[in-house]
Amino acid sequence: MAKKLAVTTNATSTEHLPVGYGEWLMKLKADIRQAQTRAIIKVNTEMIQLYWRIGRDILERQSQQGWGAKIVDRLAEDLRREFPGIEGFSRSNLLYMRAFSEAWPNAEIVPQPVGQIPWGHIRLLLDKVKDADTRNWYARAAFEYGWSRNVLAMQVDTRLHERDGRSLNNFAATLPPPDSDMVAAALKDPYVFDFVTLAHDAHERHLEAKLTEKIAKFLLEMGRGFAFVGSQYHLEVGGQDFYIDLLLYHIPLHRYVVIDLKMGAFTAEFAGKMNFYINAVNKQVCTPGDNDTVGLILCRERNYLIVDYSLGGVCAPIAVAKYEHNILPAPIAAALPAPDVVEAGLVAIIAEADDEDGEEK
User: Fold this and answer.
1) Farthest CA pair distance, the chain
2) What span, in angstroms and rounded, lies between the C-alpha atoms of 121 and 143?
3) I need a surface site. Which of 9, 17, 105, 320 has the fewest CB within 10 A?
4) Neighbouring residues of 201: CB distance < 8 A, sequence distance ≥ 6
5) What is the pLDDT of the chain when averaged over all its residues?
6) DSSP string covering 116-159, please?
C-alpha cells in the first residue's frame, strides 16, 4: 500500500493573494520603518533636551547659588535610586550634562544638528573638540552624513574640518558658479590614508592596490557621495590603450572624478596628462545628464606656485592635493624583498605549480 504524504500549507504562499498585495505590503513595510526611525529620533531629541536641562540646572546652582561639587554625587545617587531601570544618571554622565549645557548655552539647542545626534557623539565632541565653532561643524557633519561614533572620532582625529575644500584647483576658472564652489567643497587637502602602509620605494600601483583592497575606508576618506567605478580603467584613444588609476563618480554632483596617483611631488607634466584623461572620459564615458568630469591629482608633495602655473589656462577642472599614509620603518623595509621581487616570485611559484599539475595529468 502506498504511503500517504503529509501536505502542509505555507502561510506565506502568494498563490491566492489579490492583485497589488505585494506592492501594498512593500509600502507598509517602508512606512513602518520610517515611523520607527521617527520614533527613535524623537526619543533621542527628548533625551538630549532633558540632559541639557539637567546640565543647565546643575550649572546654575553651582555658579549662582554656590552649590559644591558634592551635589553631583548626591544627585546621581538619588536619581539612580528613584529610577533603577534607567541608565544615564551616573556621576560622570551628569558632569557631561553640565559640560553640554555650558558648551551649548542656547536654549534652542534641539532644532540644531547637535540636538539630533546621539548622546555618545556629543560626549565625544565635548572630550575632543574645545572650540565652539569647530564642535558645531562636526555636529552638523555627523548629522548630515549619518556618521557612527567611530567614524566621527576618526574625522576629528584627522582634523577633517581643516582639510575640507582645501585642494589647490582651477575650478573658479573652469566651472560656472555655484558648481565651482560645490566641487571644491567635495575635495580635501590633504587626504589621510592611515589604513595604508607602504615602503619608501613603493610605486603608484602599490598604493592603488592598497586603496582598492580597502575600498570602504578609501571611499569614507574621500567623503560623502563618492562611488567606485574602477581601477586601471581602460580607455582606447586613437588606437592606443590608456589606463586611469582610479575612476570615481560623485552621485550628488553627477560627475565622474578621475584620480591620478603620484608617489612623488607634483610636476607640471601631470596637468597635461590629467587634461587628456578628463577629455577622454567626457567624450567616451559620460552620458546625457552627467556634468563635466573633474580631475584630482594626488601627490606626496606639491608646490603652490608650480600648481598655479600648471593649471592656469587649462580648460579642464583639475585639483591637486597631498595625501598621507603610513611609512614602513626603514630597518623593516630593508629586510624585506622589493615588491617587484615578491611579485616575480609569486608568478614563478604559480607557473611551477601549473607545470606540476600538467605532468601529473
Assistant:
1) 95
2) 10
3) 9
4) 333, 338
5) 87
6) TS-HHHHHHHHHH---HHHHHHHHHHHHHHT--HHHHHHHHHTT
Question: Distances from the Cα of 36 to the Cαs of 46, 148, 296, in angstroms?
Answer: 15, 19, 41
Q: Are 227 and 327 in a shared domain?
A: yes
DSSP-assigned beta bridge partners for residue 68: none
Domain that includes residue 242, residue range: 163-343
Q: What distance lies between CA 133 and its chain's CA centroid?
A: 21
**pLDDT tens, 317-342?**
999 999 998 876 555 545 555 555 55
Which of 36-45, 94-103, 169-178, 293-302 bottoms out in mean pLDDT, i.e. has the lowest?
36-45
Q: Is 68 exposed, middle or buried (0-12, 13-18, 19+ CB in 10 A)?
A: exposed
C-beta separation of 324 from 192 below 8 A:
yes
DSSP summary character for residue 225: T
| Domain end point (choices 112, 139, 157) | 157
Distances (CA, A) of 307 to 162, 205, 267, 273, 322: 20, 23, 8, 14, 12
Predicted TM-score (pTM) of the model is 0.73
Query: pLDDT tens for residues 64-94?
Result: 777 887 889 999 999 999 988 788 899 999 9
Residues 177 and 104 in one domain: no
Query: How much is the average pLDDT of 182-205?
Result: 90
CATH of the domain at 128: 1.10.10
Q: Looking at the structure, do residues 175 and 139 belong to the same domain, yes or no?
A: no
- Interval 268-282: pLDDT, tens: 999 999 999 999 999
Kindly state whether residue 25 falls inside one of the protein's structural domains: no
* 204 found inside a domain: yes
Is residue 241 assigned to a domain? Answer: yes
CA dist 32 and 35 (Å) reads 5
If asked whether residues 109 and 150 sit together in one domain, one would say: yes
Contacts of 330 (CB under 8 A, 6+ apart): 200
Phi, psi of 170 (to 5 degrees): -115, 25
- pLDDT, tens digit, 9 for 90 and up, residues 138-186: 999 999 888 899 999 999 999 999 999 999 999 999 999 999 999 999 9
